[in-house]
Design a protein that fits this description.
- The chain contains no helices and 20 strands.
- The chain is an all-beta fold and 257 residues long.
- The chain folds into two domains: 163 residues, Sandwich (Immunoglobulin-like); 88 residues, Immunoglobulin-like (Sandwich), CATH 2.60.40.1220.
- It has a six-stranded antiparallel sheet, with no helix packed on it. Strands 1, 3, 5, 7 and 10 form a five-stranded mixed sheet that branches. It has a five-stranded mixed sheet with strand order 15-20-19-17-18, with no helix packed on it.
Length: 257
């Protein structure tokens, strides 16, 4: 199992920076992970000087599309001025539940720390998917006030940005020939685009009167000419690759015999 330690990069915040100091670390050479890899990730926050006005309500993990199987390993330290409260894991994050647990942290006030010297940290395990998505990883810090006059914000931090190590199945590209010779000699008899990393595909062939004479959604199925006369035909290809990118291509194909 690899250990992922974070570099803290502010992505965006609402109105102001958080009260407190966030500490994290990252190996700059580790920008990608292989598929199926299990990673141990930890986050540490030093201080939250919001006092009783803005209490720390939750520390949530936001995973990029390439991660799965998020498993919490330990809750943050309870920093309340009293001992009446616990951190409860709900919806991919730790939420503070004040007093006896009713398994509903949303109706409770948050954790507070008047002096801002409490260190909260927690670790979790995540796994790389068998796919080609990005491996962004963020922490969302949410605070709440006791009344409508309290100005408390949420903060979204991008802690890690990387990618899954690309294998042959994630290499993307499409080659479209410009001519074919459907004369039955078994050499270049089929007009067929060749691609890698293609998830969705549509091919249409048009004659000179702009009529569709061939269509397929199967990239492995080509056009045999349909006994069409020699000439130039228009094609349209619409495809989406494994990176989620959609492209539309128009071109001409020469039918030669």
């Amino acid at each position: 199992m690899n250990k992922l330690i974070f570099l803290l990069l502010p992505l965006f915040s609402y109105n102001q920076s958080p009260i407190g100091i966030e500490t994290s670390y990252l190996d700059p050479d580790k920008t990608s992970y292989p598929k199926g890899e299990k990673v141990l990730a930890c986050y540490q926050m030093e201080g939250w000087a919001g006092g009783s006005t803005c209490k720390l309500e939750s520390l949530e993990v936001e995973l990029g599309e390439g991660w799965e199987n998020l498993t919490p390993l330990n809750p943050p330290q309870n920093c309340s001025i009293t001992t009446e409260g616990d951190w409860v894991w709900v919806n991919n994050g730790w939420h503070f539940e004040f007093g006896p647990s009713n398994n509903n942290p949303s109706d409770d006030i948050g954790d507070w720390d008047f002096f801002g010297d409490c260190i909260r940290s927690f670790c979790f395990e995540i796994q790389v998917k068998d796919s080609c998505e990005e491996l962004d990883l963020s922490i969302i810090i949410t605070s709440r006030g006791d009344n409508i006059n309290s100005i408390c914000n949420s903060y979204h931090y991008l802690l890690y940005s990387g990618h899954i190590e690309i294998g042959p199945e994630c290499e993307v590209g499409l080659y479209i020939p410009n001519s074919f010779t459907p004369n039955g000699d078994e050499s270049n008899d089929i007009f067929k685009p060749l691609g890698q990393g293609i998830e969705k595909f549509n091919l249409e062939i048009y004659n000179r009167w702009n009529e569709i004479i061939f269509e397929t959604n199967n990239i492995n199925e080509g056009w045999n000419g349909n006994n069409s006369p020699v000439g130039v035909y228009l094609y349209k290809v619409l495809y989406t690759n494994v990176l989620g990118e959609t492209h539309q291509i128009y071109g001409h194909i020469n039918l030669i015999k």
